[in-house]
Amino acid sequence: MNLETLEIKAFVPARDLSESLDFYKALGFEVTMESDDLAYLRHGKTAFLLSHFYNPEHANNFVMHMLVASADDWYRNVLASGVSEKFPARTSPPDDRPWGIRDFTLIDPTGVLWRIGHVIAD
Fold first, then answer.
1. Using H for helix, E for strand and C for coil, what is the string for 60-101?
2. How many angstroms separate the CA atoms of 77 and 111, rounded?
3. Does the domain at residues 11-119 carry the CATH identifier 3.60.40.10?
4. Domain map of the chain by residue range?
């Protein structure tokens, strides 16, 4: 019996699929598949599905965690991308968390909260 797991993908909600696609592309994500109601986004070895689905309670309580090599470099990338000025998005600076992660938050145009961070070395 082979129970190997190959991947798990989240369906991230998008109120306006076109706007959300532009947001994620500005951050450096590649769109590898797109239809009227779904898109497959990839960055490096990671990926997620962006779904043209919007329920305010769901979107405002949806959290994605992205583990990266450097939260500080990603934060600089977010600032340089201009997404906070071009889209209804918000971010906060990186900080060391008591659970051993240095991360920052980024809220996308739909209201999805991203926690982008790296493990703090001992």
1. CCCEEEEECCCHHHHHHHHHHHCHHHHCCCEECCCEECCCCE
2. 20
3. no
4. 11-119
CA atoms of 68 and 18, how far apart (whole Å): 26
Single pTM value for the model: 0.93
Dump pLDDT digits (tens) for 30-72: 999 999 999 999 999 999 999 999 999 999 999 999 999 999 9
Amino acid at 108: D
CB 21 within 8 A of CB 38: no
Under DSSP, is residue 25 helix (H, G, I), strand (E, B) or coil? Answer: helix
Amino acid identity at 110: T
**How far apart are alpha carbons 83 and 108 in whole angstroms?**
9
Record the tokens describing residue 75, joined without a space.
């934060």
